[in-house]
Design brief:
It is elongated and about 65 Å long. It has three helices and five strands; from the N terminus they run H-H-E-E-E-E-E-H. The longest helix has 17 residues, at about 25-40. By secondary structure, it is α+β, with helices and mostly antiparallel strands. It has one domain. A hairpin with a 3-residue loop joins strand 1 (about 45-50) and strand 2 (about 55-60). It has a five-stranded antiparallel beta sheet.
């Protein structure tokens, strides 16, 4: 007879669901993107995904590097590092555990997109 095991609180299934932005997160990011495109600040976007993070990359022109990245850290070390905003050099501008707070508290017009 086969051995049957009971698995309680299986963490791997929970992590499989969060390999991308959920619908509410993506909606708030795309609302911000639409606002900034109508403002004339942002021109294009792309998505990048890896095992550790998923990012929404913002381009000012057709360039090789994104000028701004909104990241969802899939394996954060600290609770406030779940969502990050990084510049094109990779330095962290802001971080938060809630994406809506991060978007609303950031003054997007004051962020300078440097060439």
């Amino acid at each position: 007879m086969n051995k049957i095991r009971l698995v309680v609180n299986n963490e791997s299934k929970r992590n499989e669901k969060e390999k991308f932005f959920i619908k509410k997160e993506l909606q708030s990011i795309l609302n911000l993107y639409a606002k900034m495109v109508s403002n004339g600040s942002w021109k294009d976007y792309s998505f990048t995904s890896s095992i550790k993070e998923v990012s929404f990359d913002v381009y000012q022109r057709a360039s090789e590097k994104p000028v701004l990245r909104i990241l969802k850290n899939l394996k954060p070390k600290y609770f406030n590092e779940k969502f990050l905003i990084k510049d094109k050099n990779g330095s962290v501008l802001k971080k938060s555990e809630n994406l809506n707070q991060l978007i609303s508290k950031t003054s997007w017009n004051k962020l300078k997109l440097v060439k």
